[in-house]
Amino acid sequence: MSKFQVHTIGSAPEQSKPVLQQLQQTFGFIPNIAGAMAESPMLIGAFINLFQKVHSGTFTEAQIQTLLLTNAVTNACTWAVAFHTALALNEGLTPADVEALRAGRAPADRQHAALSTLTKTAILRRGHLDERDISAFLEAGFRRDQVLEVLAVAAASTITNYVGSITQPPLEAQFQVHAWTA
């Protein structure tokens, strides 16, 4: 497989630098996966716009991390699983629920289980959800518009997960404790 450079602000294409600077401010560092994405200014620009929309939607950050971690596991992206494990724990998901998600199982929390189940089903069935899938999600306390919002989160995840699988960026030291294999 080809090696992709993990760019820094200094080495990135000029149009990618503002996004890397923004991520530096958000996280306090530039995630290696974003450094790999920076190879394509178009991709990283599209990603950051979607990323911002996802994090300003109706889901809490803990719910977003449930979706992102489920998607990373479903798409078998080792970098993203480790990264979102750390973020999910920081957002208050229980270690047991995080371990369930990492194992491909639904967490104990009812709403997080509904989120995880819906996004995993949407990915595995390529968006072909039936009324039972949607009803189970709604019965957990969500709204119909949020079914579609789950798809926006899945789209952001797909970008990250596919970039991780293609470029295989190194896992940062602070996430090594959460390393995962499919």
TrEMBL record:
Protein name: Carboxymuconolactone decarboxylase-like domain-containing protein
Source taxon at top rank: Bacteria
Organism the protein comes from: Paraburkholderia phytofirmans (strain DSM 17436 / LMG 22146 / PsJN)
GO MF annotation, one: peroxiredoxin activity
Domain Carboxymuconolactone decarboxylase-like: 56-115
